[in-house]
Amino acid sequence: QQQVKQSPQSLIVQKGGISIINCAYENTAFDYFPWYQQFPGKGPALLIAIRPDVSEKKEGRFTISFNKSAKQFSLHIMDSQPGDSATYFCAASGETSGSRLTFGEGTQLTVNP
Amino acid sequence: DAGVIQSPRHEVTEMGQEVTLRCKPISGHDYLFWYRQTMMRGLELLIYFNNNVPIDDSGMPEDRFSAKMPNASFSTLKIQPSEPRDSAVYFCASSPEPGTANYGYTFGSGTRLTVV
User: Fold this and answer.
1) In angstroms, rounded to a whole number, what is the distance separating the alpha carbons of residues A56 and B12?
2) What pLDDT, in 10s, does the model give residues B15-67?
3) CB B48 to CB A45 under 8 A?
4) What's the rounded Cα separation, in Å, for the pair B85 and B67?
5) Contact predicate B115/B11, CB 8 Å
6) Cβ–Cβ contact A49 with B under 8 A
7) Buried-state track B83-99, b at ≥16 Cβ within 10 A, e below 16
8) Which residue of A has its CA nearest to B97?
9) Cα of A36 to nearest chain B Cα, Å
10) Contact in structure between A4 and A101 (CB atoms under 8 Å)
């Protein structure tokens, strides 16, 4: 019940296209859903996060969409750029897990020029 | 703040040797996490601390692994004896209390461990 399932495992998008990564969770106590971006040789870095009181959050070209009833959330990268090529992780946590984040398996995004 | 600082960046050691990884969290962060990342298993939480106290070490793979946090500014992860299957990138992360305005994990740059 603590798992967060992420798909796809890898994604190739052309420059200017939209990248979409999806995550699903089971634990209804989860109330914090961040996305992390990781470049090779670096640690994951917080990209954007959402709480279930809103259905969407946008920061620049990055948008999280949240569907509480379906227990799903997704990351949309608009106007994808080669510099966005990285591994993306979704995660979730809630009151029962304290500060402990459960991470998805990761999606390797490649944006071709 | 310089962020979460890990050392060494790279470590190559022979099987059976003791390995110590070090982490300095961000000042004021109450939580510290140790993760291991491999291609096969992704990001695995090994152990985490709250206010220097270990809260959950259920992810520590075996008794060969131990972690300490003697004070708020320093933590170590020790592997003794090391084995080739321990080869991975080990990340330390810290965070403030959940619910704070700037809540989120800050990861260090990791230690790439190779056991030969």
Assistant:
1) 45
2) 999 999 999 999 999 999 999 999 888 899 999 999 999 999 999 988 999 99
3) no
4) 18
5) no
6) yes
7) eeebbbbbbbbbbbebe
8) A99
9) 9
10) no
Per DSSP, the three-state class of B99 is coil
CB contact under 8 A, B50 and A89: no
Q: Give contacts of B43 with chain A, Cβ < 8 Å.
A: 44, 89, 103, 106
User: How far is residue B66's CA from residue B63's CA, in Å, rounded to a whole number?
Assistant: 7
Q: What is the pLDDT of residues A29-44, one digit of tens each?
A: 898 999 999 999 999 9
Instruction: Indicate the DSSP class of residue A101.
Output: P
Taking residue A99's Cβ as centre, other Cβ atoms within 10 Å add up to 21
d(CA B37, CA A41): 12
Instruction: Please tell me if residue B1 touches chain A, with a CB cutoff of 8 Å.
Output: no
- Answer yes or no: are the C-beta atoms of A5 and A104 closer than 8 Å: yes
